[in-house]
Amino acid sequence: MTCKHFGACGSCSLYTMPYEDQLKKKKEELAKLLEPFYRGETTPFASEDAHYRARAEYKIYHDEEGCHYAMRHLDKKSFVTLGECPMVAKPIEKRMWRLLDLVNGDETLENRLFGVEFLSTTTDEVLVTMLYHRKLDEAWIEKARYLEEELSAKIIGRSRKQKIVLSEEFVTETLCIEGKTYRYRHYEQSFTQPNPKVNEKMIGWAMAQARRYGRGDFCELYAGAGNFTIPLSTLFAHVIATEISKRSIHAALENCRLNGVENITFVRMSSEEFTEALEGKRTFTRLKEVDLDAFDIGTMLVDPPRAGLDEGTRKLIAKFDTIVYISCNPQTLARDLEELCRTHRVEDAALFDQFPYTSHMEAGVVLTKM
User: Fold this and answer.
1) Low-confidence ranges of the chain (pLDDT < 50)
2) Record's family (predicted)?
3) pTM for the complete prediction?
4) CATH class of residue range 19-49+194-369
């Protein structure tokens, strides 16, 4: 990938390195972090080197010439106005500049617009959220409906205490994992994996580890909208999954219906709450129709936020035979492994390059009880 904004735009900090060198550097850094716990091969899963991001958020900068997309400068002190952005998926790229053309010169669309967010799929669906510092009215709705037709995209308008959905507030993604197709509804401003092709590889890797090392029933913490849960459910008789976000639980249940999956019990609670429930320390009305004792949990998958696992969750998952740990922060993964490797050993490790041209790494390890 080449971009005329390399060296200025803060989105791509590793712009001086060819992509193959970036991947090699990240693999070496991850292997060093994991060295106290694992001396085997760390498998790297590469990204496409351009048009890989299915999510993008831009600030809107206004000057006498109109509106411009802007990103924070590498110096973190200013902003860069963009004339191209080759990291975004092609469905976004083919609409974002046409959107800007239609906004510029139109007072209704341009007035106090301060941000635009894009969410796309591998099948050319795009959802566009336009963010304003003013109340949106019928005139805006009329113009936004024209945008939907012109862009073949779904438009949402947001301002303070206001959200206008013109058609739908989600896109339906299609992923191919181990030769099978899975469909997911991704809702506006909800968490989704940003790199669909690497996401397919990440789910496939997790399935391979669960197939090789999995025992008993399957439990997933931080399940989101079922990104891992639904494909992995095909390997187990019974599955229980937790997620704190009410909206994500709603999407997960929809995604189960989309994929004809009926063996997953989703529970809306944090990992800390679920730990207390499993240990019998607290009772929860949210679990009144769930018989936890009926699950013979032997395999755990965790995909925590950047902060990693809390102490209680580390102690909980250490009780189970197999742990698949997906991490968006290898530093906290290494911290958690100090505790988990007292009872488990790392059998395999992987690097998932969701964010080319940045130093960000995602990792996966599978642990089995010693």
Assistant:
1) none
2) Belongs to the class I-like SAM-binding methyltransferase superfamily. RNA M5U methyltransferase family.
3) 0.95
4) alpha beta
